[in-house]
């Protein structure tokens, strides 16, 4: 994890961060409340995993400790009553807060966990377009949506930066392709690949083009959530800095009590960013015992 030392200037406790980044990671199961209820899941869940613990800040979700039985093998999973994903990746969905009846775009949707949880949050009412540039990866989206029996989602296969239209969605999620540094725990501490400066800048160019298009696609007053599973300010705050302040404001995000986040950084390696990038939130692994993530919510002006 030596390469993560570059974040010493922006993390509160470097040693705790580096240690946490190597720890095995628990998973989460959430109830498909379109087809079952939290109470019904709580009836059978102790038989599958006695150590499962309800998570207070998400609707109908439970932590499954690392090393416990794998939810993907449970019959209730095959029946579409639950889905399993990484806890921290629920925060972009929480921040998007899509409502029943809305028009929502998930610009980078594959393999589909956030799209599925978004459709469940919408009560399977309205329209969710689950787009991904890679056609092969869309099969994952089809699989999860079909297994969960969700009908409000349709898939699309386009470069997100070229999706046509103007101000036609209530909400857009940009869960951007990124260097993935925050997923080291998911990979059992094995994601040690060193990312070179050039990669950050190549990814940032793609991320900027996706976020700019997302802002154009959302109606005035609508919401864009920009998220990555990486720590690099080049892929996070610097990308937000590329949006003109007259087009979108970066809103404060009030996380529930008991959740610990750090603000977006306003300066990195000599570059200063627009001040409202501080409203974005950073999930460092040691703060809530999760993977790493970055989430920003923008309001189209
Ligand atoms: C972080 S993953 C998304 C994970 C997904 N949101 C989920 O929760 O399962 C990023 C995705 O962006 C897709 N992608 C990369 N470049 C893209 C582009 N220009 N337009 C749309 N999707 C793109 C990748 O194929 C990849 O599936």
Task: Briefly characterize the structure.
The protein is α/β, with parallel strands linked by helices and 301 residues long. The chain has helices at 14-20, 38-48, 75-78, 91-96, 113-121, 138-148, 197-217, 237-240, 285-288; strands at 27-31, 53-54, 61-64, 82-85, 103-106, 127-131, 153-156, 169-175, 218-228, 248-251, 262-263, 267-268, 271-272, 281-283, 293-300. The model has no long low-confidence stretch (mean pLDDT 95).
Structure, explained:
The protein is an alpha/beta fold. The chain folds into two domains: 2-22 and 86-300, Rossmann fold (3-Layer(aba) Sandwich), CATH 3.40.50.150; 26-85, Sun protein, domain 3 (Alpha-Beta Plaits), CATH 3.30.70. Helices cover 26% and strands 22% of the residues. The protein is built from nine helices and 15 strands. It has helices at 14-20, 38-48, 75-78, 91-96, 113-121, 138-148, 197-217, 237-240, 285-288, and strands at residues 27-31, 53-54, 61-64, 82-85, 103-106, 127-131, 153-156, 169-175, 218-228, 248-251, 262-263, 267-268, 271-272, 281-283, 293-300. The strands form three sheets. Strands 5, 6, 7, 8, 9, 10, 11, 14 and 15 form a nine-stranded mixed sheet that branches. The chain has a four-stranded antiparallel sheet with strand order 2-3-1-4. The longest helix has 21 residues, at 197-217. Bound molecules: S-adenosylmethionine (SAM). S-adenosylmethionine binds next to helix 5 and helix 7.
């Amino acid at each position: 994890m030596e390469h993560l030392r570059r974040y010493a200037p922006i993390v509160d406790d470097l040693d705790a961060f580096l240690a946490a980044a190597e720890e095995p990671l628990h998973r989460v199961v959430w109830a498909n409340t379109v087809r079952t209820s939290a109470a019904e899941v709580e009836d059978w869940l102790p038989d599958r995993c006695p150590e499962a613990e309800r998570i207070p800040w998400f609707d109908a979700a439970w932590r499954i400790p690392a090393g416990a039985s794998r939810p993907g093998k449970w019959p209730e999973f095959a029946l579409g009553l639950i889905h399993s994903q990484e806890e921290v990746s629920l925060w972009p969905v929480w921040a998007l807060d899509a409502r029943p009846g809305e028009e929502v775009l998930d610009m980078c949707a594959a393999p589909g966990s956030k799209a599925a949880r978004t459709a469940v949050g919408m009560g399977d009412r309205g329209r969710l377009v689950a787009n991904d540039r890679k056609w092969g990866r869309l099969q994952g989206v089809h699989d999860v949506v079909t297994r969960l029996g969700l009908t409000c989602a349709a898939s699309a296969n386009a470069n997100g930066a070229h999706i046509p239209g103007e101000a036609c969605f209530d909400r857009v999620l940009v869960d951007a392709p990124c260097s993935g540094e925050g997923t080291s725990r998911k990979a059992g501490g094995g994601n040690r690949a060193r990312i070179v400066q050039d990669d950050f800048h190549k990814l940032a160019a793609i991320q900027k083009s996706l976020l700019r298009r997302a802002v154009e696609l959302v109606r005035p007053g609508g919401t864009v959530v920009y998220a990555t599973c990486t720590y690099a300010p080049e892929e996070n705050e610097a990308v937000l800095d590329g949006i003109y302040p007259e087009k979108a404001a970066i809103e404060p995000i009030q996380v529930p009590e008991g959740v610990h986040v750090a603000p977006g950084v306003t300066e990195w390696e000599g570059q200063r960013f627009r001040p409202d990038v501080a409203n974005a939130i950073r999930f460092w692994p040691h703060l809530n015992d999760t993977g790493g993530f970055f989430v920003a919510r923008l309001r189209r002006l």
